[in-house]
Fold these 3 entries.
Entry 1:
Amino acid sequence: MEKFKKVLLTAIICAIVFLIISFWIFEYEWSILPYLLLTGCFMAWVQAETAVYKFLDKLLIGSLLFGFLAMILIFLKRYMMSHLVYDSPLPLAELWDKDTLMMAAVFSLVSFLGGLLGVVLKGFYALYKNKLGILVVFVGPLAVLSASLAVYKIKIGGTIMSAQHGWPYPFWIHQIKDVLDNFTIDEWIFSPGSLYHYIIFDYLFYLLIFVLFYFLVKSVNARLRMKKINITIALFSFLVFMVLIFISFLSIKKSYISRQIAWAGECRENSDCAIVANRSPFSCAIVVNKANADRILNLVNSFPSTGELQCSGREKAVCLENKCWVSIEQTPEDINDVLWQRIKQSIKNCEVGSTMQTHSLEVTAVLKTGEVIKAFEPKIDDIFEITDKVKDKCGEIRTATE
């Protein structure tokens, strides 16, 4: 058991860190992959083995622990608040849901593959550690250049896709005045030309950053009398940091904008609210307080949208409980159908704590968050049939009848 200690501890720490950053990295699903691979690398690097086959058993156990522990922690994050506040039972049966188990298996598999990559990198370090630092200086910019492809349709200097926006603007422009109209005109001192030229510019730009970082570490080491900084490890850590910045950029930006939209919706009356935009991936009707409309619209427009979302065209902004919401003009039958479908879906998702029906077919469902939903069921006792079907999955749901 002693030989597994470091790997298991690393897996637990990585699962906790993964839980914390899951607020952002789940926005774009593919952006979680580098974090999973890096977790596997850490589990390989903490091992003191010298033969490849000796890594595998510990790496396999650590990957399985990380994958399933990460999913359990994320699950608990979703339901713990309702449990603490409303004393609602946790729907633990969802932990064994097919989709949850599949995601945990994917986490484990990708982290295991990352561990194999970590073994390879550790082997290279053991063989070429005196030369590997210089190699990272020249190869690292290529990796960062590739990672910058994750940032698209947004002007960020140093990314290939920013060629569309004139990067490295404004470093190589100067202003001239039109002789006739006396207008100020921006003119390129040197025109980069094709995307091929931008790739060269970006590589040289990152190369300069890595060279400066290399000499910075050497300068710090020259001032240290005792323990020196390992230049190769420092350069590799810097490389990983820069790659993660680019890959996570859009995920973090989307999360930030979504939170700003949520916080910008405080109101007192309906006239305070307004629909400011229809943008994917946010909403077909982004509604905020009018005082924040321009700021939110600028934020939304700064994100690379994939177009507009399909809406009914009957949306309007309303103020409910001091919060701006989107309301759709519907008939009473439409509203009841929506509420009834929501009750059924909430029961299937194990989100309902109790239900009650009356002889008039009115059903009241109390969610574990404390929210109350009322709707009329199609026929008497339909609600009981629905709750009985999910008993094995969600446990006993308190039911009552008039």
Entry 2:
Amino acid sequence: MLDKELRSMIGKVKDGRMDRRAFIKRMAAVGLTAPLANQILAIGGVAMAQSPSPYPPTKRGGGGPLKLLWWQGPTLLNPHFATGTKDQDGSRLFYEPLASWDVEGHLNPILAAEIPSTKNGGLAADGKSVTWKIKPGVKWHDGKPLTADDFVFTWAYVSDPATAAVSISTYADMTVEKVDDLTIRILFKNPTPFWANAFVGAYGCVMPKHLFADYKGSKSREAPANLAPVGTGPYKFVEFKPGDLIRGELNPDYHMPNRPHFDTIEMKGGRRCRLRGASGDPDRRIRFRLEHAGRGRSTAASREGWQGQDHLCRGRRHRVHCDQLHRSEHRG
């Protein structure tokens, strides 16, 4: 696609002659993802769209326990060592990024006070830097304040080859500097259209400097917090059995008002996790009982190399066990 044509399309979106979805479809036709298309619009001066929340919370807590059956249990709870989605999902209960993408390619703030744009001065016109403002008043689960120092440390921690973080490429070819206690600036070596990568999404979770500073580099795997996380998320760590179970409890100081809804969370995993009746048949009757007697709902999903269901249940009367009869490795 020619530069002139691209600039013309961005101009049409800016003045309302083309909607954002049509622009994203045009970009997808030439092989660009929705997040990258949205970042091109942002550099062109079109503000990032944020997805509306489908759930307007009215109070924090009161939802009872949330119990999840997962296809495989996490083996550690450091998001930068996550070798698959099981570890990413487990870590994400406790750790958070500056922002996260939704399925439509919208970038939504989490620990960020706002999404950077050219209008608010967050995006440099030359595409070589982005400035993030951190939400004030956020605390780690141990009561320490979240500051820019934690983000600068996370960049140094992950980008050190001796740390052996799986997310190292996300933080390559950049420098992160502290502007003030609640502002960081990311400096890129070259113009970078995909600027919302570091500190965004699964590999964007920030780590507490005061707990990991002594474990940077070759000592990274020795950190106690790898198995007992202290994050900023909606749930505080209670218990972890690697490969089996995670438990968390509501964070009363969570920075998002009226969240979370559930009082406790439990994530149960296994080699192959299925709901089974006493006869060994699949779970239709059990799901019916969960939905009608358990005050909850269940959903089914599948992954390559795995046949079964993930189920959500808020009921207290009915328990479902994770079948671990099949112990062969799956491609999770």
Entry 3:
Amino acid sequence: MKKIFMTILMIGIFFMGYKPLFAKEVPSLFINGVERNDVTIVVEDNTILMPLEICSEELKAEVIWDSDIRQATVIKGDNTLIFRIDDLTYTHNGEEKKLLKEPEIINGVIYIPVKSFVEALDGVVLYDEEYNFINIYDKESMRYKVYQALKSDNLTTKRFAMLESPRLGGLKAKGDKLFLKYIFPTNKLDENYFFEYIEYNPDSNDDWVRFHIMNYYTIKNGVAVCTWSREVDEDGSIREIELDSLRGIAILNDNQNHILLKLIGDNSFDKKVKVGEWPNIKDKNFLIFEQEFEEESIESTCFYLNYNTYIRLDLDEEVVREIYWNPNVPIYKEKYSVEKAYTPFSSKNITLFTLDEKTLVEENPDEMAEY
């Protein structure tokens, strides 16, 4: 007796081309931009098995199970895949093909090795051996557009795609966020990394307590992987950079450490956390896109930072007069035509700024300051 249903079976995804380490350790799984810790993955004989329930939902495929002949049929658009339990042969639109491992039933659940499943249904399967994860996309999904935008020749679009990519690792705020900053190298379309800087309050009973987190993310096969993190308390963090707001100068205590290491600082308190090795960043010019979280609103601002300069770029004349009451403060918003930009990929409140970054870098040399 045939039973037709959607998303109630379990199916395995077969993945070829990985080394034995992959077979020994269950990889992390991302489907359409979301990490799926709720999905049970089984690794057998260099084969990865995972739930059909998830694949059919994400790839919008119909599943037909014939219990009499133990056969699973997967249909999406013009594509039809047919698998049988304990049979290495399957068909794709009537054409016979071979699997390296036969489908099977484990603990009453159907598992099918099926790299062909994702690709035949217009999907993409990416595997990262170094960080041990699988990243799957339906090409019709918005999250696949995010993945494609990682190769955009528009710098702002690429930055939004990096921020919207799924993330692996990174320290998280353990309290109310006060500030969130995204830091990118200036005028570098070929770079694939960013820093996330979080200031938060871990104690709801004390508004003056501040902790600071900095995470370094690099893009690997569509996933933002965190390979370095640091968390410090208020004392010894940003205090290593003294800021003169009127002149826009960053006065460093010494010229040895990278400017971003100085931004987070290195205080030696009991709760300090360090993860990974500093990524040895060569860039010296950075844009900082900051969001300040207030009770009922979020204020977005933009800063430029190098070894000589720390300036706020989004100020107009009215804001300058309101904040500084000084007509001599340079108005960088007009000079560099700074404009707000919003993510085109979702409804998330992610705000960046666009400006002439080439001119900005040329007019602000990044040589080490000497005071």
